[in-house]
Amino acid sequence: MSLSLLEGSLLAFVLCCAVGAALLKDTLASVMAFAAYSLGISIIWLVLQAPDVGLTEAAVGAGIMTILFLLALANTVTPDADSLFESVRWRTVALVGAFVLVMAATVPSLPAIGDPTAPVVGGEVTQYYLEHAYKETQVHNAVTAVLAAYRGFDTLGEAVVVFSAGVVALSVLRREVFA
Amino acid sequence: MTADPLQLDLLTSRYNYYAVVLLLGIGLYTLIESPNLVKKVIGMNIFQTGIFLFFITLAFRSGGNPPVVTEGGGPYASPLPHVLILTAIVVGVSLTAVALALIVRIYSEYGTLDEETLEGLYYD
After folding, report:
1. Which of A87, A169, B31, B38 could form a disulfide with B101 if both were Cys (CB 3.0 to 4.6 A apart)?
2. What's the whole-model pTM score?
3. What value does the mean pLDDT of chain A take?
4. Residue B62 in contact with residue A1, Cβ under 8 Å?
5. Which domains are assigned to chain A?
6. How far apart are CA A85 and CA A88, in angstroms?
7. Is the dihedral of CA B120, A168, A27, A21 positive or negative?
8. To the nearest whole percent, how much of chain A has pLDDT over 90?
9. Which CATH number fits domain B5-123: 1.10.287.3510, 3.40.47.10, 3.40.50.720, 3.30.470.30?
10. CA–CA distance, B39 with B45 (Å, rounded to integer)
11. Residues near A22 by Cβ (< 8 Å), separated by ≥ 6?
12. Which residues of chain B have a CB within 8 Å of the CB of A81?
């Protein structure tokens, strides 16, 4: 599949927001750029046939994450912005650029986007879940079937991670309450 | 990128992977270079979503449907990377929450979020 106008503009929007979030000096502006970035990328998930991920990203990435950042900003300080953008340090750009070049060198060996014979899409495991998910779990959505039935214990582990993150955040913030 | 047709073909058939690489670069730059701790967390999140884009692109099938299996439907995108990334998004938010809680604590203890000032205070 070749690059459509919708995908091209979404990718450009997302990359611009990411650069904005990285370089804007005002932390609040940076958080806002990141929220726009999350929203853009959740639309990209929809275009890439992943509506479940898109919904989660829009609710959690653009919603809850932004609230968390805003709460953190409200409880700390935003540095005085004497200029709109931070100055770019070229030494770090060179370092990151080398990393990007090395990563980009591996791209030609990846399968083309949307290739039905690519190992992930055409692989045996994917076919197994698509064929058996409804018969074995009575759930039409294969993502839900895998998440809640086949990998149920993994999702329980995920709940444990969220719980412990909540406990840690509370104990870090209210240390004096427990002392 | 040269004008030779093979390279152009690579760009039009693998554009998402190049976006992944750029997002990883932007995230890494913010993580290393930003003096503000909150912006470092934003950089970490950009790095993460770059990796998510890699997985979701691998699951994409041109002309396919989202993996909601119905009689006679299909072909479908692969559901497995979607599940992995759903888990990863939630874990990423937990990570962000803990990091921001630590940042608020650091601010109430030291009164600054600037990396160099903090380093100076730490070594005093």
Report:
1. A169
2. 0.90
3. 88
4. yes
5. 1-110 (1.20.120.1200), 111-179 (no CATH)
6. 9
7. positive
8. 47
9. 1.10.287.3510
10. 10
11. A30, B26, B27, B29, B30, B34, B39, B42, B43, B46
12. none
What is the CB neighbour count within 10 angstroms for residue A93?
14
Torsion of Cα atoms, B11 then A4 then B23 then B8, to 10° = 10
> Which single residue is written with the structure tokens 């976006």?
B19
Residues of chain B contacting A72 with CB distance shorter than 8 Å? 38, 100, 103-104
With contact defined as beta carbons under 8 Å apart, do B58 and B42 qualify? no
* A contact test, residue of B20, B61, B117 with most A CBs within 10 A: B61
Structure tokens at A77: 């300080």
d(CA B124, CA B121): 5
> Which tokens hold the place of B21?
């690489």
Predicted-assembly ipTM surpassing the 0.85 threshold: yes
